[in-house]
Amino acid sequence: MSREAWIVVGVVAGVVALATLYGAIRLARKLFVTKRMLGDLGTGGKVAFWGALIYTILPIDLLPDPMYLDDMGVLTAALLYLTHLLRKRRAANALIRQPGGRAPGPSSAADAAPRRGRR
């Protein structure tokens, strides 16, 4: 290959590396924001949050570090899990705030069924 071709390849690789680094930073920021909204994460949330951050920071990766695609995948998986926890918590809080709202349990299906009165 000519010198100009190597320069083009280097520039393209640099742009791709910067784009994936930018994506990884945005995902990490969203992960922190979601963690802050959740407050207490519970055991699974803590493992997902800290595991994703440790994997992203450590130099040992599945793909070489100029390509942050594996880091982005781990951060995305942790963000999806924390978002799932946040939605569950919001749904539980909305259920509690409703008048007569109760947490779902074995007796809630029986309570929801219409009762027939005797004539």
Explain this structure to me?
With 119 residues, the protein is an all-alpha fold. It has a domain at 26-100. The chain contains four helices and no strands. α1 (3-38) runs parallel beside α3 (69-97) and α2 (42-57) runs antiparallel to α3 (69-97). The radius of gyration is 24 Å and the shape is elongated.
Structure summary:
With 119 residues, the protein is mostly helical.
Class from helix and strand fractions: mainly alpha
Q: Please identify the oligomeric state.
A: single chain
- Note the main sheet: none
Number of helices: 4
Number of strands: 0
Principal-axis shape: elongated
Mean pLDDT: 77
Q: Report helical residue fraction.
A: over 70%
Low-confidence stretches: none
Helix/strand order: HHHH
Topology:
Blueprint: H1 3-38, H2 42-57, H3 69-97, H4 108-112
Task: Describe this protein with a few key phrases.
about 70% helix, about 120 residues, elongated, mainly alpha
